[in-house]
Design goal:
By secondary structure, the protein is of the alpha+beta class. It is about 25% helix and about 20% strand. The protein folds into 2 domains: about 130 residues, Alpha-Beta Barrel (N-terminal domain of MutM-like DNA repair proteins), CATH 3.20.190; about 110 residues, Orthogonal Bundle (Helicase, Ruva Protein, domain 3), CATH 1.10.8.50. It has a 5-stranded antiparallel sheet, covered by helices on one side.
C-alpha cells in the first residue's frame, strides 16, 4: 500500500506558516477526515483491531465493536462540529472524536500531515482502532496522546448547531443572556459545534470583538457581524487547508503585532485557552 500523504484542499501542508504551530483537530481538520473517510465507504469490514481498550468510550469494548462492524460496510461519512460519524448499513453509527492529536488514516493516507501537539514520527502503537477491509485496505484512528475516542451510536442531542451552517438567529440564541466571556461561549460545543481555539481567535479578530466581552452584551448588529465573519472564516480555513491558516496565525506569539493596525497583541487566558487578540480594534 502507498505511504503517500493524502493531499486535498484541506491538508495542513508546509507553507508560509512553517515554523509556527500546525493545526489541531478543529472543524476544518475533521471535515478533511470526513472527506478522506469517503474512501472507506462501501468496503466490507473484515476485522477490527482495538489494542487500546481505554480508547473505546460509552461502554463499548473491542468485542462489541468488532461484532457491530465485521461483515458490514460504511455507507456514509458525516460530521457534526468536531465529531466524525460513520454510518453502517442496517447497523450502528461509529462516532470518532480526535482530541488534540488524533487523525484519520485510510489506506496509509492521512487527512492532515502534522498537528500542533502531535509528534512528527509515527509509532504503530498510536493506532488505537484499526478497521481492516476485505479488499486488503484499512482505516485507522491514530492518536499519540489518547485524548480522542471511538464509540457506537454517540448521543449528539447535547451538541450545538454546526459552525459551518449555523444561522444568525441560532447564534444569537447561543449568546443571549450569557455573562461568560464571548470566546468561552463560542468554544462551548453545546452552544456552537466545531469552533476551536485557533478558529475562535481568528473569528473575533476579524469581527473586531474582544474575547473578554460578556457574550450576552453584544448588540444585534454585533451579533450579525460576528455571524458574518464566522461563516467567512469557516469557508476560508476549509479552502486554505486548516485551522492554522488564518490571517492572525503567524502573529500569535510574544512580540506579535496585529496585521490590521500594527498594535501589539495581548495574550489572555479565556475559557482555559490561550488567546491572542488586538486591544486596538477588538472592543
Amino acid at each position: 500500500m502507498s505511504s503517500a500523504v493524502h493531499r486535498s484542499p484541506l491538508v495542513a501542508r508546509r507553507d508560509r506558516t512553517a515554523g509556527y504551530p500546525r493545526a489541531v483537530p478543529e472543524l476544518p481538520e475533521v471535515e478533511s477526515y470526513r472527506r478522506l473517510a469517503e474512501r472507506a465507504l462501501g468496503r466490507t469490514v473484515l476485522s477490527v483491531a482495538t489494542p487500546d481498550p481505554w480508547f473505546l468510550k460509552g461502554g463499548v469494548d473491542g468485542a462489541t465493536l468488532a461484532a457491530a462492524l465485521e461483515g458490514r460496510a460504511f455507507t456514509e461519512a458525516r460530521r457534526i462540529g468536531k465529531l466524525l460519524l460513520l454510518d453502517t448499513a442496517e447497523g450502528p453509527t461509529v462516532g470518532v472524536r480526535f482530541g488534540m492529536t488524533g487523525t484519520l488514516v485510510v489506506d496509509d493516507n492521512a487527512g492532515v500531515d502534522q498537528l500542533l501537539y502531535a509528534p512528527r514520527r509515527h509509532d504503530p502503537a498510536w493506532d488505537r482502532v484499526t478497521v481492516h477491509f476485505a479488499d486488503g485496505g484499512s482505516m485507522a484512528v491514530r492518536d499519540p496522546r489518547r485524548l480522542g475516542g471511538v464509540s457506537l451510536d454517540p448521543d449528539v442531542s447535547g451538541m450545538g448547531p454546526d459552525a459551518a451552517t449555523i444561522t444568525g438567529a441560532r447564534l444569537a440564541r447561543a449568546l443571549e443572556g450569557s455573562h461568560a466571556p464571548l470566546k468561552a461561549r463560542l468554544l462551548d460545543q453545546s452552544r456552537v459545534s466545531g469552533i476551536g481555539n485557533l478558529m475562535a481567535d481568528e473569528v473575533l479578530w476579524r469581527a473586531g470583538l474582544s474575547p473578554l466581552r460578556p457574550a450576552g452584551d453584544l448588540s444585534s448588529s454585533e451579533v450579525r457581524r460576528l455571524h458574518r465573519h464566522l461563516r467567512r472564516v469557516v469557508a476560508d480555513l476549509m479552502d486554505r487547508g486548516g485551522s492554522h491558516r488564518g490571517d492572525l496565525m503567524e502573529h500569535r506569539h510574544v512580540g506579535g503585532h496585529c496585521p490590521r493596525d500594527g498594535v501589539g497583541l495581548t495574550r489572555s487566558t479565556v475559557g482555559g485557552r490561550t488567546s491572542w487578540w488586538c486591544p486596538g480594534h477588538q472592543v
